[in-house]
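Sample pair:
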Amino acid sequence: MTPHRTSQTMKPATAAKKLEVYLKATPAEFQEGTVSRDELDALQSDPPAWLRDLRRNGPHPRSVVAARLGVSISGLARGGVTEALTTEEIEELRAENPEWLQRERATQAEVQKETLRIKEKNTTPTKPSKPTSRKRP
C-alpha cells in the first residue's frame, strides 16, 4: 500500500510571484488562503477573468515592469520607480522616454552583451594541449 501524498501548498506571495502578478491587486480570497500546486497549474493553464485582467492591465510587479521597460529591477529603483505600475503607466513612461530610462536601457543592453560574450567564451572549446614527451631515465 502506498502512503497518501499530500498536495504541496505555497503562500499567496509565492503563487503571485509565479503567476507574475502583484499580490495586493489579487482578490482577497487569493491573498488570504494557500495555493496548492494543482491550483497553481489550473490558474496557469486556464486563468480566471481576474488573472487575465491583472496580466493585461496591471498593476504589475516590479519584475514585470522592468521586463516591459527593458531595464533591471535595480534600474527601476535608480529611476525612482518603487511601486507597481499599470500597463497604461508603463506605456506613458515609454512614450516620455525620460533620461533615466534611456540610461538604464543602455546599461541593460551592455550587461546583456557582456553576458553573451562570457557565455560564448565559456562554450567555445579550447585547443587541447599537446601531450608533453617525457624522457624516461
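Strands lie at 9-10, 35-36.
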